Amino acid sequence: MKYYLSVLAGAMSYGILSTIVVLAYGQGYQLGEVVGTQLITGFILSWMLALYTRFRAKRKAQAAGGQAKVASASPSQVFTRLTWKQRLMLMAAGTPTVITGLVYYQSLRYIPASLAIILLFQFTWISVLIQAISKRQRPDKITFLTLFILFGGTLLAAGFLEQGISKLSGLGIALGLMAAVSYSLFVLFSGKAVPSGHPAFRSAWMVTGGLILLCILFPPTFLFNGLIWSQLLIFGLLLGFFGAFIPPVLFAIGVPHIGGDMAGILGAVELPVAVLLSSIVLHEHVSALQWFGVVIVLIGVALPELYKMRARRSRSTPVYSG
After folding, report:
1. By C-alpha distance, which of 244, 170, 214 is closest to 13?
2. Which among 255, 133, 149, 108 has a CA at the least distance from the CA of 184?
3. What residue ranges do the domains of the chain occupy?
4. What is the pLDDT of residues 270-293, one digit of tens each?
5. CA dihedral 249, 255, 257, 263 (to 10 degrees)
6. For the chain, how many helices (H) and strands (E)?
7. How far apart are CA 314 and CA 111, in angstroms?
8. What is the pTM of this model?
Protein backbone atom coordinates (compact mmCIF):
# COMPACT_ATOMS: atom_id res chain seq x y z
CA MET A 1 0.00 0.00 0.00
CA LYS A 2 2.84 2.41 0.79
CA TYR A 3 4.11 2.21 -2.81
CA TYR A 4 0.67 3.15 -4.17
CA LEU A 5 0.53 6.07 -1.74
CA SER A 6 4.03 7.11 -2.80
CA VAL A 7 3.05 7.42 -6.47
CA LEU A 8 -0.25 9.05 -5.54
CA ALA A 9 1.49 11.68 -3.41
CA GLY A 10 4.00 12.36 -6.18
CA ALA A 11 1.25 13.02 -8.71
CA MET A 12 -0.64 15.21 -6.24
CA SER A 13 2.52 17.30 -5.84
CA TYR A 14 2.45 18.13 -9.54
CA GLY A 15 -1.16 19.26 -9.19
CA ILE A 16 -0.16 21.97 -6.69
CA LEU A 17 2.16 23.84 -9.06
CA SER A 18 -0.34 25.85 -11.13
CA THR A 19 -1.93 27.36 -8.02
CA ILE A 20 1.47 28.44 -6.64
CA VAL A 21 2.39 30.04 -9.98
CA VAL A 22 -0.84 32.05 -10.13
CA LEU A 23 -0.23 33.28 -6.57
CA ALA A 24 3.32 34.30 -7.55
CA TYR A 25 1.98 36.24 -10.53
CA GLY A 26 -0.42 37.96 -8.15
CA GLN A 27 2.60 39.30 -6.25
CA GLY A 28 4.00 40.82 -9.44
CA TYR A 29 6.74 38.30 -10.26
CA GLN A 30 7.60 37.55 -13.88
CA LEU A 31 7.79 34.28 -15.79
CA GLY A 32 11.60 34.00 -15.84
CA GLU A 33 11.82 34.74 -12.12
CA VAL A 34 9.23 32.12 -11.20
CA VAL A 35 10.64 29.34 -13.39
CA GLY A 36 14.21 30.36 -12.55
CA THR A 37 13.80 30.03 -8.79
CA GLN A 38 11.97 26.73 -9.27
CA LEU A 39 14.78 25.21 -11.34
CA ILE A 40 17.54 26.53 -9.08
CA THR A 41 15.81 24.96 -6.10
CA GLY A 42 15.27 21.74 -8.03
CA PHE A 43 18.92 21.78 -9.16
CA ILE A 44 20.23 22.08 -5.60
CA LEU A 45 17.87 19.45 -4.17
CA SER A 46 18.45 17.00 -7.04
CA TRP A 47 22.22 17.11 -6.71
CA MET A 48 22.02 16.84 -2.93
CA LEU A 49 19.93 13.69 -3.37
CA ALA A 50 22.27 12.28 -6.04
CA LEU A 51 25.40 12.83 -3.95
CA TYR A 52 23.71 11.46 -0.84
CA THR A 53 22.59 8.39 -2.79
CA ARG A 54 26.15 7.79 -3.98
CA PHE A 55 27.54 8.28 -0.48
CA ARG A 56 24.98 5.89 1.03
CA ALA A 57 25.59 3.22 -1.60
CA LYS A 58 29.33 3.51 -1.08
CA ARG A 59 28.95 3.05 2.67
CA LYS A 60 26.80 -0.06 2.13
CA ALA A 61 29.33 -1.49 -0.30
CA GLN A 62 32.15 -0.88 2.14
CA ALA A 63 30.22 -2.49 4.99
CA ALA A 64 29.37 -5.52 2.87
CA GLY A 65 32.92 -5.87 1.58
CA GLY A 66 34.61 -5.86 4.96
CA GLN A 67 37.33 -3.69 6.38
CA ALA A 68 39.90 -5.02 3.91
CA LYS A 69 38.05 -3.44 1.00
CA VAL A 70 37.28 -0.08 2.60
CA ALA A 71 40.50 1.52 1.52
CA SER A 72 40.13 0.45 -2.09
CA ALA A 73 36.44 1.31 -2.48
CA SER A 74 35.55 4.33 -4.57
CA PRO A 75 32.33 5.94 -5.81
CA SER A 76 33.05 4.70 -9.31
CA GLN A 77 32.87 1.13 -7.98
CA VAL A 78 29.42 1.79 -6.55
CA PHE A 79 27.99 3.66 -9.52
CA THR A 80 28.86 3.31 -13.15
CA ARG A 81 30.18 6.72 -14.07
CA LEU A 82 28.35 8.44 -16.87
CA THR A 83 30.41 9.55 -19.84
CA TRP A 84 30.21 13.16 -20.95
CA LYS A 85 28.28 12.02 -24.01
CA GLN A 86 25.68 10.42 -21.74
CA ARG A 87 25.57 13.51 -19.54
CA LEU A 88 24.98 15.74 -22.56
CA MET A 89 22.22 13.39 -23.73
CA LEU A 90 20.52 13.67 -20.35
CA MET A 91 20.92 17.44 -20.31
CA ALA A 92 19.35 17.64 -23.77
CA ALA A 93 16.51 15.36 -22.62
CA GLY A 94 15.83 17.75 -19.74
CA THR A 95 15.35 20.82 -21.90
CA PRO A 96 11.71 20.03 -22.87
CA THR A 97 10.78 20.37 -19.19
CA VAL A 98 11.90 24.00 -19.31
CA ILE A 99 9.88 24.67 -22.45
CA THR A 100 6.90 22.95 -20.82
CA GLY A 101 7.23 25.06 -17.69
CA LEU A 102 7.64 28.30 -19.62
CA VAL A 103 4.65 27.91 -21.94
CA TYR A 104 2.45 26.26 -19.29
CA TYR A 105 3.14 28.94 -16.69
CA GLN A 106 2.72 31.66 -19.31
CA SER A 107 -0.68 30.23 -20.27
CA LEU A 108 -1.80 30.84 -16.68
CA ARG A 109 -1.68 34.57 -17.43
CA TYR A 110 -4.45 34.22 -20.00
CA ILE A 111 -6.63 31.29 -18.97
CA PRO A 112 -7.81 29.83 -15.64
CA ALA A 113 -5.54 27.32 -13.94
CA SER A 114 -8.32 24.72 -14.13
CA LEU A 115 -8.35 25.04 -17.94
CA ALA A 116 -4.55 25.14 -18.26
CA ILE A 117 -4.09 21.80 -16.51
CA ILE A 118 -6.77 20.21 -18.70
CA LEU A 119 -4.97 21.41 -21.82
CA LEU A 120 -1.68 20.10 -20.45
CA PHE A 121 -3.28 16.69 -20.01
CA GLN A 122 -3.75 16.48 -23.77
CA PHE A 123 -0.21 15.09 -23.77
CA THR A 124 -1.86 11.67 -23.38
CA TRP A 125 -3.20 11.57 -26.93
CA ILE A 126 -0.42 13.75 -28.38
CA SER A 127 2.13 11.18 -27.19
CA VAL A 128 0.15 8.44 -28.94
CA LEU A 129 0.02 10.52 -32.13
CA ILE A 130 3.77 11.22 -32.09
CA GLN A 131 4.58 7.53 -31.56
CA ALA A 132 2.18 6.49 -34.32
CA ILE A 133 3.81 8.92 -36.77
CA SER A 134 7.36 7.99 -35.79
CA LYS A 135 6.66 4.25 -36.04
CA ARG A 136 4.31 4.64 -39.05
CA GLN A 137 1.88 2.42 -37.23
CA ARG A 138 -1.86 2.96 -37.01
CA PRO A 139 -3.23 3.08 -33.43
CA ASP A 140 -5.46 0.18 -32.37
CA LYS A 141 -9.17 0.33 -31.57
CA ILE A 142 -8.70 0.88 -27.83
CA THR A 143 -6.49 3.87 -28.59
CA PHE A 144 -9.12 5.40 -30.89
CA LEU A 145 -11.75 4.87 -28.19
CA THR A 146 -9.48 6.49 -25.63
CA LEU A 147 -8.88 9.53 -27.86
CA PHE A 148 -12.63 9.90 -28.41
CA ILE A 149 -13.28 9.80 -24.64
CA LEU A 150 -10.48 12.28 -23.95
CA PHE A 151 -11.74 14.69 -26.60
CA GLY A 152 -15.30 14.61 -25.26
CA GLY A 153 -14.14 14.96 -21.66
CA THR A 154 -11.91 17.89 -22.57
CA LEU A 155 -14.78 19.76 -24.22
CA LEU A 156 -16.81 19.41 -21.01
CA ALA A 157 -13.99 20.00 -18.53
CA ALA A 158 -12.68 23.07 -20.33
CA GLY A 159 -16.11 24.67 -20.35
CA PHE A 160 -16.23 25.01 -24.12
CA LEU A 161 -19.85 23.83 -24.27
CA GLU A 162 -20.99 26.28 -21.57
CA GLN A 163 -18.91 29.38 -22.32
CA GLY A 164 -18.03 28.91 -25.97
CA ILE A 165 -14.48 28.99 -27.23
CA SER A 166 -14.81 32.63 -28.36
CA LYS A 167 -14.91 33.79 -24.71
CA LEU A 168 -11.57 32.16 -23.93
CA SER A 169 -8.13 33.48 -24.81
CA GLY A 170 -6.86 31.93 -28.03
CA LEU A 171 -3.27 32.66 -27.00
CA GLY A 172 -3.78 30.97 -23.63
CA ILE A 173 -5.27 27.88 -25.28
CA ALA A 174 -2.40 27.75 -27.79
CA LEU A 175 0.17 28.00 -25.00
CA GLY A 176 -1.57 25.25 -23.04
CA LEU A 177 -1.50 22.92 -26.04
CA MET A 178 2.15 23.81 -26.72
CA ALA A 179 2.90 22.76 -23.14
CA ALA A 180 1.20 19.43 -23.83
CA VAL A 181 3.32 18.88 -26.95
CA SER A 182 6.52 19.77 -25.09
CA TYR A 183 5.63 17.48 -22.19
CA SER A 184 4.92 14.65 -24.65
CA LEU A 185 8.43 15.09 -26.08
CA PHE A 186 9.89 15.03 -22.58
CA VAL A 187 8.09 11.77 -21.77
CA LEU A 188 9.37 10.19 -24.98
CA PHE A 189 12.97 11.47 -24.73
CA SER A 190 13.49 10.99 -21.00
CA GLY A 191 12.64 7.31 -21.16
CA LYS A 192 15.19 6.68 -23.92
CA ALA A 193 18.02 8.85 -22.56
CA VAL A 194 20.60 6.66 -20.79
CA PRO A 195 18.10 4.23 -19.19
CA SER A 196 20.99 2.35 -17.56
CA GLY A 197 21.96 5.37 -15.47
CA HIS A 198 21.00 5.69 -11.81
CA PRO A 199 17.64 7.54 -11.49
CA ALA A 200 19.04 10.11 -9.06
CA PHE A 201 21.86 11.10 -11.40
CA ARG A 202 19.66 10.96 -14.50
CA SER A 203 17.27 13.39 -12.84
CA ALA A 204 20.10 15.66 -11.64
CA TRP A 205 21.68 15.95 -15.09
CA MET A 206 18.32 16.58 -16.76
CA VAL A 207 17.57 19.38 -14.31
CA THR A 208 21.05 20.77 -15.00
CA GLY A 209 20.37 20.88 -18.73
CA GLY A 210 17.07 22.60 -18.15
CA LEU A 211 18.65 25.19 -15.86
CA ILE A 212 21.36 26.04 -18.41
CA LEU A 213 18.76 26.57 -21.13
CA LEU A 214 16.66 28.75 -18.86
CA CYS A 215 19.65 30.91 -17.89
CA ILE A 216 20.27 31.50 -21.60
CA LEU A 217 16.65 32.48 -22.27
CA PHE A 218 16.13 34.38 -19.02
CA PRO A 219 19.39 35.53 -17.38
CA PRO A 220 18.90 35.11 -13.59
CA THR A 221 19.22 38.78 -12.66
CA PHE A 222 17.05 38.11 -9.61
CA LEU A 223 20.07 36.42 -8.02
CA PHE A 224 22.03 39.68 -8.04
CA ASN A 225 19.46 42.46 -7.60
CA GLY A 226 18.23 41.19 -4.22
CA LEU A 227 14.84 40.02 -5.49
CA ILE A 228 15.66 36.44 -4.54
CA TRP A 229 15.42 37.38 -0.85
CA SER A 230 11.81 38.49 -1.18
CA GLN A 231 8.67 36.33 -1.35
CA LEU A 232 10.08 35.01 -4.62
CA LEU A 233 12.33 32.70 -2.61
CA ILE A 234 9.29 31.15 -0.90
CA PHE A 235 7.51 30.56 -4.20
CA GLY A 236 10.70 29.14 -5.71
CA LEU A 237 11.24 26.76 -2.81
CA LEU A 238 7.64 25.53 -3.02
CA LEU A 239 7.77 25.06 -6.80
CA GLY A 240 11.16 23.37 -6.68
CA PHE A 241 10.17 21.11 -3.81
CA PHE A 242 6.78 20.02 -5.19
CA GLY A 243 7.75 20.13 -8.88
CA ALA A 244 11.40 19.17 -9.34
CA PHE A 245 12.22 17.15 -6.23
CA ILE A 246 9.37 15.33 -4.48
CA PRO A 247 7.65 13.67 -7.51
CA PRO A 248 10.81 12.06 -8.99
CA VAL A 249 11.80 10.74 -5.56
CA LEU A 250 8.37 9.30 -4.78
CA PHE A 251 8.00 7.84 -8.28
CA ALA A 252 11.42 6.21 -8.00
CA ILE A 253 10.25 4.57 -4.77
CA GLY A 254 6.81 3.45 -5.88
CA VAL A 255 6.84 2.78 -9.64
CA PRO A 256 9.25 -0.22 -9.58
CA HIS A 257 6.90 -2.00 -7.15
CA ILE A 258 3.50 -1.22 -8.67
CA GLY A 259 4.45 -1.10 -12.35
CA GLY A 260 4.24 1.61 -14.98
CA ASP A 261 0.64 0.86 -15.93
CA MET A 262 -0.74 1.43 -12.44
CA ALA A 263 1.56 4.43 -12.00
CA GLY A 264 0.01 5.96 -15.11
CA ILE A 265 -3.46 5.54 -13.67
CA LEU A 266 -2.54 6.95 -10.26
CA GLY A 267 -0.61 9.79 -11.90
CA ALA A 268 -3.86 11.13 -13.33
CA VAL A 269 -4.79 12.38 -9.83
CA GLU A 270 -2.77 15.48 -10.74
CA LEU A 271 -5.74 16.73 -12.77
CA PRO A 272 -8.48 16.77 -10.08
CA VAL A 273 -6.01 18.13 -7.50
CA ALA A 274 -5.12 21.07 -9.75
CA VAL A 275 -8.77 21.80 -10.57
CA LEU A 276 -9.81 21.50 -6.91
CA LEU A 277 -7.08 23.86 -5.69
CA SER A 278 -7.85 26.39 -8.41
CA SER A 279 -11.46 26.34 -7.23
CA ILE A 280 -10.72 26.59 -3.49
CA VAL A 281 -7.58 28.74 -3.36
CA LEU A 282 -7.93 30.85 -6.52
CA HIS A 283 -11.75 30.97 -6.36
CA GLU A 284 -12.14 29.95 -9.99
CA HIS A 285 -15.63 28.81 -10.95
CA VAL A 286 -15.78 25.13 -11.85
CA SER A 287 -19.28 23.95 -12.76
CA ALA A 288 -20.75 20.51 -12.20
CA LEU A 289 -20.55 19.87 -15.95
CA GLN A 290 -16.84 20.68 -15.91
CA TRP A 291 -16.27 18.29 -13.00
CA PHE A 292 -18.10 15.63 -15.00
CA GLY A 293 -15.69 16.33 -17.84
CA VAL A 294 -12.74 15.90 -15.47
CA VAL A 295 -14.06 12.47 -14.50
CA ILE A 296 -14.40 11.51 -18.17
CA VAL A 297 -10.81 12.64 -18.85
CA LEU A 298 -9.61 10.49 -15.92
CA ILE A 299 -11.47 7.51 -17.37
CA GLY A 300 -9.84 8.16 -20.73
CA VAL A 301 -6.38 8.27 -19.14
CA ALA A 302 -6.95 5.05 -17.18
CA LEU A 303 -8.72 3.06 -19.94
CA PRO A 304 -5.70 1.91 -21.99
CA GLU A 305 -3.74 0.96 -18.87
CA LEU A 306 -6.67 -1.03 -17.49
CA TYR A 307 -7.04 -2.73 -20.87
CA LYS A 308 -3.34 -3.74 -20.86
CA MET A 309 -3.62 -5.09 -17.31
CA ARG A 310 -6.70 -7.13 -18.21
CA ALA A 311 -5.00 -8.52 -21.34
CA ARG A 312 -1.96 -9.62 -19.33
CA ARG A 313 -4.13 -11.30 -16.72
CA SER A 314 -6.09 -13.19 -19.38
CA ARG A 315 -2.86 -14.41 -20.95
CA SER A 316 -1.44 -15.52 -17.61
CA THR A 317 -4.64 -17.33 -16.51
CA PRO A 318 -4.30 -21.07 -17.20
CA VAL A 319 -6.98 -22.67 -19.35
CA TYR A 320 -8.15 -26.10 -18.18
CA SER A 321 -9.87 -28.54 -20.49
CA GLY A 322 -11.92 -31.44 -19.30
Report:
1. 244
2. 133
3. 2-55+82-315
4. 888 888 888 899 888 888 888 888
5. 140
6. 15, 0
7. 44
8. 0.81
